[in-house]
Amino acid sequence: MSITLRNVRKDYDAQTEVLKDISVKVETGEFFVIVGPSGCGKSTLLRMIAGLTPITAGEVSIDETVVNDLPPKARKLTMVFQNYALFPFMNVWDNVAFGLKARKMDQADVKQRVDEALKMVNLTELAKRKPRELSGGQRQRVALARAVASDAKICLMDEPLSNLDAQLRIKMRQEIYALQRKLGLTLVYVTHDQVEAMTMADHIMVLNDKHVQQIGTPSDIYQNPANDFVAKFFGTPQINILNAHRSQTDNHVLNVSSDLEIALDEEVPAENVKIGIRPDDMKVEATESVEANATVKNTEFLGDETIIYATLNSGEDIHVVVPGQVNYRIFQPIKVSADSNLMFFDTEGNRMNISKEAYVHA
Amino acid sequence: MLKSPAQSTPTTPLSVEKTKSEIADQEAKFTLNAKDKYFAWAFLGPSLLILGVFIFYPMVKTLYLSLFLTNTVGKTTVFVGLSNYINLLTSADYLSSLGVTLFYVFAVTIITIALGLVLANLASKRLPGIGIFRTLFSATMGVSVSVAAIFWLFIFNPSTGFLSLASTWLHLPQIPWLTDPTAAMWAVIVTTVWMNLGFTFLILLGAMTSVPTTLYEAANIEGASSRFQFFHITIPSISPTLFFVSIITLIESFKSFGLIDLMTKGGPTNATNMLVYRIYKDAFYSGNYAQASAESIILTIIIALFTLLQFKVLEKRVNY
Amino acid sequence: MDIITKPKLSRRIWDYALLTILAVVVLAPFLIGLWTSFLPTMQIAKGNFLSTQVSFQNYIDAFTQTPILRYLGNSLVISTATMIAQLIFCSMSAYAFVFLKFKGRKFLFGLFLATMMLPFEAEIIPNFQTVKALGLLNTYSVMVIPFLTSAFGVFMLRQSFMQMPIELKEAADIEGLGHFQFYWKMVLPYNRIPLMTLGAYSFLGAWNQYLWPMLTTFSNDFRPVQNGLRQLQSEETFNDWGMIQATAAIVVIPTLIVLFIGQHYFKSGVNEGAVK
């Protein structure tokens, strides 16, 4: 089952706009991730698809049928919540059976579906436990089992992993992905975590400041971010965004500061630009203070690589990732350089030198 | 160490929990279910009916009655405006009732709270077997008004009572507990305090045991005496609860009726003739419904003021 | 609250001594009452407080010569009915205030809150006239109907219903539960503890009613225990202290047992409803 949003808008009242003009199509069987910082309206968007929150304008369709006025139960979908929404007074089995019983499904059918769902998420042994007797990961699995047991083919998930610890998150990520593929669910998954988005999604929608920033595949979004927000949102450590201008003497030379110049194959597209350079596309060398264009602020050794935090002589902060272990003192002068693998943004932060169509598709 | 940007990437944002108010707000704007209003009537109807008939209507009716003269079956005869109130507030008799009530109310509240604090402070110590003492101290909660009255009537009984016997053994002068005006007032106060003590103790104990122990640990490291700790840590920490129980005790004492009726019947010589007892006697003994209504309104105003005070403070607590 | 640093032994002994003395003082009226309930009235009248003629005779007399069991039965009926009614009606109202969106919600809630300011004691005159006109005098109903709901109960339950995660309601919406189903299957079981607390409060509240039953009942068939004890105590032939104490003990012992079992709920209820 596919989901289509056409020019969907949400206002809480005349003054507070929450979401502006959202249009997207989620294909049948697709793992679709909505990602953005907290407060960007991503949970509201999910609740609008579920029918829990009414939309102010626009159209929500499921399988090409407009469902704007349908109550949640008629939309044939399931939802997994951040806090799992388990009923504390029911055991695991009853929690999973709850939705089926509420829909007055036949007893034998309920039993079969619940047992199967519990088996699929490895909870068969814990069926008689109450939620408070379960660990975080097990509770998460109960919530998943509910979605599995339902025959609805659309599943909505609202930050389902954010209450789990880091290790468990990786494990559950894989389990959710496997379930989605196995059951052929159309899954809309809301998260603030770029790693979850990158690792699971078929398509990602990046939401910020009421607007869709970009919709695309994970690699699209990483390699061709539509603007500096998207560029900064994906990739750890964050991309360096620096102010730069075209050299007055050579159109192919970019001046980041008077002592950091980058020679390019292409022409610099405007006089004043912002550039984005991933931290591993920069180089650092120790040098005499005369040649130095930056000073080390701090270094972090991560085992297989080292992050160097430094301040350019122009005052801008940068960070650089270099392989292996390197030893720099704090305040040591260094020379930073970059190769030509960089992105241009205009002073507003919008990506330059790339056609719109290249990234707005989904 | 400098804060590394790696730690502030979107992988670990500061707040991911949706705030309650944010969602509650979403919910409040929820308009899909227009049928809610019919459900609202179904769910609220019974309560509204009861409150309407037995709380709102009688309040209006009482106010109405208080502006008239009434005959012995409570029918209004002549409109007299505020003169029932003026008569009351200029009558030495009523003012003395008011004074007696105020004395009783404040004595009961102060003594109950003070004793409650002493008991709760002792019982909040972490000692083996403290649970038994906590249970014993809260025991008076289970005592209803007539049982308390019977227990204490025996204790105060002038001829065969426990206090009279004890005075004989100890060769102390006999106090005519229930026949001397001052002594009778104190007898009622003592009994009320005793009845209230269990509840007050339990609430204060709950508040005291939830004060973070780290505060006391810090104070101990600083070498603060336990007396200092009590007044500078315990009392400020439990002040909202302290305020709450004080107001509750105050309001409940204003409404005292049962003990008065059982122990003194307002006497001797009106020494314990408090507001509610007066209303009862003026209405149902003397048949002076108009005056009793005016007294009811005055009582309502007093209680409403204290309740409002409580709401105000409570609101601050809820919102902070 | 003292830091656990092995308090000095003398300090401990002092604490226990103080606790014991205070416990004896607080419990003295019980102990005196209980002790005299085992003594023959003759001995009490003679001031022979330490008599050794201990017996259950007073209890036997209380059960056989007074309607104390009837009074207890009446109170049990009235209190149970009040409790059940308040649990239902208060929870329904609280549900409406938390989960239903309708015009005038704030106003109505304000109205409910306002009733907490109006003392029932100040409204006995019209209320007496009302129940008289309805022909309810001297029935069980007269002691239950005015207390079918309570603003305090609504307020307290509203506070705890608001603590429910909104996702539970959303999950129920997705499964298509109507309001009655959600109320019955989710809200009530989820809030068992506050409901038990309210149950305890409303039961004890009804049990301790004094003024209203005194005005509206005048036969032992309906008289609840509080007024029953008053009746016994004021009857002229009844100057039998031993038996009076026995009746008081009969009344107080079950409440004490219930209280000790239910103590936890009282405490949490007050904290929920008021101090939070």
Automatic annotation (TrEMBL), chain A:
<dbReference type="Pfam" id="PF08402">
    <property type="entry name" value="TOBE_2"/>
</dbReference>
<dbReference type="GO" id="GO:0140359">
    <property type="term" value="F:ABC-type transporter activity"/>
</dbReference>
<dbReference type="InterPro" id="IPR008995">
    <property type="entry name" value="Mo/tungstate-bd_C_term_dom"/>
</dbReference>
<dbReference type="InterPro" id="IPR012340">
    <property type="entry name" value="NA-bd_OB-fold"/>
</dbReference>
<dbReference type="GO" id="GO:0055052">
    <property type="term" value="C:ATP-binding cassette (ABC) transporter complex, substrate-binding subunit-containing"/>
</dbReference>
<dbReference type="GO" id="GO:0005524">
    <property type="term" value="F:ATP binding"/>
</dbReference>
<dbReference type="GO" id="GO:0016887">
    <property type="term" value="F:ATP hydrolysis activity"/>
</dbReference>
<keyword id="KW-0067">ATP-binding</keyword>
<keyword id="KW-1278">Translocase</keyword>
<dbReference type="InterPro" id="IPR003439">
    <property type="entry name" value="ABC_transporter-like_ATP-bd"/>
</dbReference>
<dbReference type="Pfam" id="PF00005">
    <property type="entry name" value="ABC_tran"/>
</dbReference>
<protein>
    <submittedName>
        <fullName>Glycerol-3-phosphate-transporting ATPase</fullName>
    </submittedName>
</protein>
<keyword id="KW-0547">Nucleotide-binding</keyword>
<keyword id="KW-1003">Cell membrane</keyword>
<dbReference type="InterPro" id="IPR013611">
    <property type="entry name" value="Transp-assoc_OB_typ2"/>
</dbReference>
Automatic annotation (TrEMBL), chain B:
<dbReference type="InterPro" id="IPR051393">
    <property type="entry name" value="ABC_transporter_permease"/>
</dbReference>
<feature type="transmembrane region" description="Helical">
    <location>
        <begin position="64"/>
        <end position="82"/>
    </location>
</feature>
<feature type="transmembrane region" description="Helical">
    <location>
        <begin position="228"/>
        <end position="251"/>
    </location>
</feature>
<keyword id="KW-0812">Transmembrane</keyword>
<dbReference type="InterPro" id="IPR000515">
    <property type="entry name" value="MetI-like"/>
</dbReference>
<keyword id="KW-0472">Membrane</keyword>
<dbReference type="InterPro" id="IPR035906">
    <property type="entry name" value="MetI-like_sf"/>
</dbReference>
<dbReference type="Pfam" id="PF00528">
    <property type="entry name" value="BPD_transp_1"/>
</dbReference>
<dbReference type="GO" id="GO:0055085">
    <property type="term" value="P:transmembrane transport"/>
</dbReference>
<dbReference type="GO" id="GO:0005886">
    <property type="term" value="C:plasma membrane"/>
</dbReference>
<keyword id="KW-1133">Transmembrane helix</keyword>
<feature type="transmembrane region" description="Helical">
    <location>
        <begin position="135"/>
        <end position="155"/>
    </location>
</feature>
<keyword id="KW-0813">Transport</keyword>
<feature type="transmembrane region" description="Helical">
    <location>
        <begin position="38"/>
        <end position="57"/>
    </location>
</feature>
<comment type="similarity">
    <text>Belongs to the binding-protein-dependent transport system permease family.</text>
</comment>
Automatic annotation (TrEMBL), chain C:
<feature type="transmembrane region" description="Helical">
    <location>
        <begin position="16"/>
        <end position="38"/>
    </location>
</feature>
<dbReference type="GO" id="GO:0055085">
    <property type="term" value="P:transmembrane transport"/>
</dbReference>
<dbReference type="Pfam" id="PF00528">
    <property type="entry name" value="BPD_transp_1"/>
</dbReference>
<dbReference type="InterPro" id="IPR000515">
    <property type="entry name" value="MetI-like"/>
</dbReference>
<comment type="similarity">
    <text>Belongs to the binding-protein-dependent transport system permease family.</text>
</comment>
<feature type="transmembrane region" description="Helical">
    <location>
        <begin position="241"/>
        <end position="261"/>
    </location>
</feature>
<feature type="transmembrane region" description="Helical">
    <location>
        <begin position="76"/>
        <end position="100"/>
    </location>
</feature>
<keyword id="KW-1003">Cell membrane</keyword>
<feature type="transmembrane region" description="Helical">
    <location>
        <begin position="193"/>
        <end position="212"/>
    </location>
</feature>
<keyword id="KW-1133">Transmembrane helix</keyword>
<protein>
    <submittedName>
        <fullName>ABC transporter</fullName>
    </submittedName>
</protein>
<feature type="transmembrane region" description="Helical">
    <location>
        <begin position="107"/>
        <end position="125"/>
    </location>
</feature>
<keyword id="KW-0813">Transport</keyword>
<dbReference type="GO" id="GO:0005886">
    <property type="term" value="C:plasma membrane"/>
</dbReference>
<keyword id="KW-0812">Transmembrane</keyword>
